[in-house]
Automatic annotation (TrEMBL):
Composition bias, Polar residues: 83-96
Domain (TonB-dependent receptor plug): residue spans on this chain: 136-243
KW Translocase (keyword) present: no
Compartments (UniProt record): Cell outer membrane
Source domain of life: Bacteria
Keyword vocabulary terms for this entry: Cell outer membrane, Ion transport, Iron, Iron transport, Membrane, Receptor, Signal, TonB box, Transmembrane, Transmembrane beta strand, Transport
Transmembrane region(s): none
Chain spans, region Disordered: 59-127
Protein name: Iron complex outermembrane recepter protein
Every TonB-dependent receptor-like beta-barrel domain range: 341-757
GO molecular function, one term: siderophore uptake transmembrane transporter activity
One GO-annotated biological process of the protein: siderophore transport
Major subcellular location class: membrane
Source organism: Nitrosospira multiformis
Amino acid sequence: MKAYTKTIKGHRRPLTPLTRPTRLVIAIQYALLSLSVAGYGHAQETSLESAKKFQTSVPAAESNAESSATESSRSGEKASKGNAPSTQENAQQGENPESAKPSETVLPTLVIKDKGPTPGYVTSRTLTGTKTDTPLIEIPQSISVINRNELDMRGVNLNFTEALRYVPGVVPDQFGFNGTGFEYVSMRGFNVQTTANFRDNLSQTATGLYFAAFITDPYSLERVDVLRGPTAVMFGRGDAGGIVNRITKLPTATPIREVEIQYGNFDRKRIAGDFGLANEDGTLMFRLVTSALDTDTQVRFPNTGGDRAQIRRFYIAPSLTWRPTDRTSITLFGDILNNRSEAAAFYLGAPDGTPTNTLLGDPSYTRYSTDQASVSYRLEHHFNDTWTARQNFRFQRLDGRFRDMDPLGFAENDLSGTMPRSAFATAERLDQTALDTHVQARISTGPLSHTVLTGIDWTRTEATLKYFAATAPTPSINVFNPIYPQPIPTPDFLAVDGIQKIDQVGFYVQDQIKFQNWILTLSGRHDRVSNNTNEFLSQTTFANKDAAYTGRAGLTYLFSNGIAPYASYSQSFLPQPGLDRSSDGRPFDATRASQYEVGVKYQPPGTRSLFTAALFELTKTNVLVPDLRAGGVLTQTGEIRSRGAEVEARTQLFRGMNFIGAFTYNDVKVTESFDGFAGKMPIRVPNLTTSGWLDYDLGTLNVSWLRGFGIGGGVRYVGRVFNDDANTSITPSFTLFDAVVRYDHGPWRFYINANNIFNEKYYSASSGGNFFRGTERMVIGTLKLRF
């Protein structure tokens, strides 16, 4: 369902001056960060001497090295093992480095030794769960990590959602193959396409007023963290289902030189490069990541001799890290992504409801074009072994131009298959500014060990929309004998012109308390939100304000054999863009959610394995649902309850053999509805999904001619989904198989990836007369050179 709102005249006007509350928020944030100045002067006296001793080598494949010597969260471990903590980007990956013995100077040095790429698919630590470097086994919530090894092995390099295919609780690609780049994702039964979108611990959840939404190039990522369940306490704008945190490739002290070329079916051509360098003492590091894609797609227009929808995409991202002292790190980052795509795999149904091979759009008219860019910085300063301050900032902008057509429905009793259409076009701009500042302290009170975090974050989104309709009639199309291309009139009637601004300020505090083998995680947050919407055409202004307290409490017990049972309660609070056009057109109220979860995590000591299982019950209120009394527009009165079980295994079965397994059972019910659908299951939500991936390094067999070869394969099952709110129509389940063959020879690595290797023909769902055809077989060869 498309939901849009309008805003005042001036689609491209600059941002308005900051209000007093906004100035106050920024002042508070910089006051928190300015504490670092106190420690900077003392650290600077020994910066040159320390910098010469500070030598870091991080594997290229894990460039945000899994390290944080003084941020270890092991029970009872003291920070005295090393006085020079690593930076936040190094902590993202999570493995503890070896620390050098303290020197005799005031500030000791830290040496992180190069251990080569971390094998397997298991990552042990993350910042995503708590904003502190914490082992996954200590986080009282379901979380999965997809590292760079897995992204490369499974050939994730077109749409970001491909990364989530083997994660429990997550259903990507509910609308089948998507060439437009939109990242359709469902988590624990809830649509989280934009609400779960995070990057480097900052919200990227801005939603435009029609199509506009930020997308991600998979090559830009070091890893992906998937935190399931309400997450608003630490991240503010996380929705009920959870968040997907994209971790960007950033500079490392190890030189990186990588070039990748790719070719596949549908005439797919792609080239990418990843280059990094650092000075001798590791105080200045630079990285440049870029990729370019040119491909046809499986979306073929009938009766054209094979005309296919195309995708053109370009991405570039420079970044720079400066360490003026061994206690201070400053990282600057920017990126540009241009995306040009045509029709998605949405096929019209016949008058009797059966699918056809006819696309609604037209090859000469349908276009989805976006230009997005961002600039960000990250500051981190360690005062001593106890206190650390961080600040993260990002501003990003998206300009979108979209052209497509809406179906108007078959005439009553007309079996000829003639579908009337209406052409439209939009010009959209989406700006988002995010600023997060927090202070961390590691202290002890008697037998209790505390990791305390307190901070403030601010997010502003500004979305503008100009929606044009065509005054001239749009040619209809016959679903049984379509004609392409047809002359489509240029939309020339301005039907919507508006702007919507949402400001959110959140204050949060967290304490991770350890007592012997017990870990108690307590978090609290207070949010204040203002939503201002102006409709230029109707000269109407809407404004509302909201505030909420949210919390999280979790208890974990660590057994010495690696078993960690836990129980938790968490809440979320999320402002929703758009207008309730079924009533007086006021902005939607924020949605809220709460969840109970119990589970167990098992990490056998000394192994590269992590097993997790969880049971949960999740309720979300103020859900946006279609109101049939008002023509099906979105209204806000719904409530949905989701119960389920999730199991995940990430393990090295034995040397050279890695396995990923995931299982999800989800019982999702509508508990409140305008239209009498209480007790029904929401559309496009499968009740059962399961998957498994296994790969093997044949070189471990010690057969000379097999050295360098590896094979792998996976299977994915997605259960049936309902196509309508009354649950009278279903799309059946489907099972897909994937495979990979690789060969390593010196600096060269060659992959052949095949997804849906048996070319299973299936639909992911059907809704409103559209059938969403699934992704067909993709066979891609990738040649990578590291030098």
